[in-house]
Amino acid sequence: MQLPAELEDAASVRRLEVMTRRIVNDVMAGEYHSVFRGQGMDFSEVREYQPGDDIRSIDWNVTARTGVPHIKRYVEERELTVIFVVDVSGSTLFGSVARRKRPLAAIVTAVLGFSAIRNNDRVGLVLFSDRVEKFIRPRKGRKHGMRVIADLIHEPEGRGTDIAGALDTLNRLQRRRAVVFLISDFQQDGIRNALSVTSRRHDLIAVSITDPRELVVPSVGLVDLEDAETGETLLVDTSSAGVRRRIERSLALRRESVRKMLRALKIDHIDLRTDREFDKPLIEFFERRNARAARG
């Protein structure tokens, strides 16, 4: 699916909604609903106890007040809360192909967001760099969904990355269980505990974004490499095969470390690249979730 390389203004957000309608309606909607339905239970009513009711459902406060046994009834929650925690740090501006990492994160958020809106779910947003740049509380409706997507164009104040801080803010402000998509290039260490805590409270799904130049370093001679988050520069001789191998090995070790950590924490992982279309990895994710649910 050919989607815009950038999200630059409100008009491009509206065009994106039109362009993603096919994948949302024809593919994502059914997969999305089957994967995320029935994530919790909503309180329905209190009524008098009847023979055969589960005694674990007895509301002891009402029973004590009335002198007659009462139980609490619940119904399966159909409407979900979906929150996108999106990395807008300096490193997400990197891109060696037509699409950079930050616009890809925005587009993927838009596609998943429109799927949630179509399913009548509540949608919220956390944008973060080395601070929480923006928090939009989850609400339903197309108008609110369009606001969430439009705010993805937000120009951040910070350049660094604080995934743990973003997740801590999410956990404090969103007490009720939610489906959380954490979208980042994961250029930060020391986040295991934050991921672990959040995955216990919410249905956490990690979406990693990688650029091909983070996989293979080209031989282009002397290059000033700038850290997009700190501004520090380092002169590197990329014509040296040994130098390229050391850089590539370091980058590969970081990626593998993230994968192992997510597997150990049993956090679902969607792996995206800026030089490839994203619809196939998303669909494969839904298929994996459905197959796992079918196995019980």
Main sheet overview:
6 strands, mixed
At CATH level 3, the topology of the largest domain is Rossmann fold
Strand content: 15-25%
Compute the gyration radius: what is it?
Answer: 22 Å
The total tally of domains equals: 2
The count of helical stretches stands at 9
Query: Could you give the order of the helices and strands?
Result: HHEHEEHEEHHEHEEEHEH
> Structural class given helices, strands, pairing?
alpha/beta
How many E-type strands?
10
- Coarse morphology: elongated
First-last Cα distance: 33 Å
Share in helix:
40-55%
CATH architecture of the largest domain: 3-Layer(aba) Sandwich
Give your account of this protein's structure.
This protein is an alpha/beta fold and 296 residues long. The chain folds into two domains: 10-37 and 78-211 and 267-286, Rossmann fold (3-Layer(aba) Sandwich); 40-75, no CATH class. It is built from nine helices and ten strands. It has a six-stranded mixed sheet, with helices on both faces. The chain has a two-stranded antiparallel sheet with strand order 1-2. It has a two-stranded antiparallel ribbon with strand order 8-9. Helix 2 crosses helix 4, helix 2 runs parallel beside helix 9 (279-295) and helix 4 (101-118) packs antiparallel against helix 5 (142-150). The longest helix has 24 residues, at 241-264. The two termini are 33 Å apart. The model has no long low-confidence stretch (mean pLDDT 83).
